[in-house]
Amino acid sequence: MENNKFLKSSNKEELKCEICLNTSKTSKVINYEGKNICMECYYSIKYPRDPQKMKKEIEEILKNTKKKNRYHCIVALSGGKDSTVALYLLIKEFKVNPLCVTVDNKYISDEAIENCRNITRYLNIDWMVLNRDFTELFKDTISRGESPCRRCSERIMREIWKIARMLNIDVIVTGHELPFGTSSLKRLEGGITVVRLLAGYKLTDEERRKILKELPWKDSKLGGYTTNCLVLAPAIREFYKKYDYSFEFRRICAMVRYGLIDRDKALQLLKCPEVPDEIYEELKRRGLDIKH
Ligand SMILES: [Zn+2]
């Protein structure tokens, strides 16, 4: 299972995008200024993302929210590397007082919860945990061979949105690194705006690791591209069994397109992840029995 069907070249006609990992099997590949590129990459050239401009948007919205409330924003903190780095940059560069909210869906690693506790204590920030149980959501999606990620993150966002409403906070900061189209902001119902802080930075993996080293943050060995979720790697394995590729393909392509990771790293990430038996045992102990 080294390669997936997206990446295998089975016929000579197949064209490969020279920027990301798409081929004519996974996207339309066109010739643009002498280069073969996919449609997604073409649009990224035509409508470029400007981190500087996105950072401006973020500054603007945080400036306005500062006047209103004891907490200037909520940070959706998962204890993984991205949301931790986002929290750190938010405090260091924007001088705001956030409330950190963690939605514990019952399948966050112990290390990630520990990270949330240690980092908020270290930075002297208030932290709230919402205990929820996403077992049914995971059972449902994984048994059908689907990615659980989209539904899981939508539900997490809904929970955090409710807290924002309750406390009259109108900005929610997340650790996503890819923006919404060409903006780092998305307006939700009720006058609440989601800010994808890292979209304004374009940090490499090394730069992020450097920030994490300054913090009381510990990595957890979970497989896949995650530092907090116990479900991701087993879910990718189940998906592989059915489709022979990773459901992270498009997201990882986008990361290559925007220069957040190089192709070699991307190919590593797209392999079927190894999952230690202990992870399956831990999932079972928490209520999710994935046969493997
Ligand atoms: Zn491409």
What would you say about this model in short?
It is built from eleven helices and eight strands. It is an alpha/beta fold. Strand 4, helix 4 and strand 5 form a beta-alpha-beta unit.
Structural account:
By secondary structure, this protein is α/β, with parallel strands linked by helices. The chain folds into 3 domains: 1-48, no CATH class; 51-213, Rossmann fold (3-Layer(aba) Sandwich); 220-286, no CATH class. Helices cover 43% and strands 12% of the residues. The protein contains 11 helices and 8 strands. The chain has helices at residues 39-46, 51-65, 81-94, 110-123, 135-143, 149-167, 205-213, 232-243, 249-257, 263-270, 277-286; strands spanning 29-32, 35-38, 73-76, 98-104, 126-131, 171-174, 185-187, 193-196. A 6-stranded mixed sheet has the order 5-4-3-6-8-7, with helices on both faces. Strands 1-2 form a two-stranded antiparallel ribbon. It is globular. The two termini are 15 Å apart. It binds zinc ion. The site of zinc ion (ZN) has 9 residues, from β2 and α1. Zinc ion is lined by residues 17, 19-20, 22, 37-38, 40-41, 257.
